[in-house]
# Entry
Amino acid sequence: MYQFESRVRYSELNEDGLLAVPKIVDYFQDCSIFQSESLGVGLDYLTERKIAWILSFWQIQIMRRPGFEERVTVGTFPYEFKGFLGMRNFFMKDETGQMLVQANSIWSLLDTERFRPVRPDEEMMNRYILEERLPMRYAPRKLAMEKGGERLAPIQITPDYQDTNHHVNNARYVTIAMDALEMMGERPQVKELRVEYKGQAHKGDLIYPVVLQTAEGYQVKLENEQGVALINMHIFIQE
# Structure
């Protein structure tokens, strides 16, 4: 297990004074990278071998979002490798050890030259120590999306959306979806977020949010100009 301590910054707050949902994703992504770097299989290791871990699925359950200056512990560990897939849990706890957020994630190891999935080699497998997965309710990787919804004005991808893999950072898709709800006048208190990553967007691309309200919250699709879904998202809200 890898974990680090932090303090919620003002720049990470939402309008309600609590940690913004996309910033939770940022914390978790950073934590996984920190662990890989500490084990010697981080960015340089992956770049040299022309491979990259690409996120396929998020399931994030939120019990409570921390507020300004609140001290938190963020942790992660892998619990299973299966072929080219890697499964990883995350958590965020307060100073008393109370669980604030817990998450499941599924990653695919990709050959960045041939754009094909590859299995992690023995060296990489030996660096990671598998642990028992968190006792949470695990959702299916594929999200069932209902038809319909309102297609909003497009967002053009600028360089600040991109990461070192030269496509839109995983957390920025969540930001786009949450901003789309905000533009519709909706400010939901999120209790669970599920994100299925189906495609990639790059600098200059247009992304169209499609929002559908459901009995449990919202379904959001982020589509390209041709109407192909790049991201499917289920947003469950507090009752």
User: Anything to note?
Assistant: The longest strand covers residues 99-111. The mean pLDDT is 94. The CA atoms of residues 31 and 136 lie 20 Å apart. The radius of gyration is 18 Å.
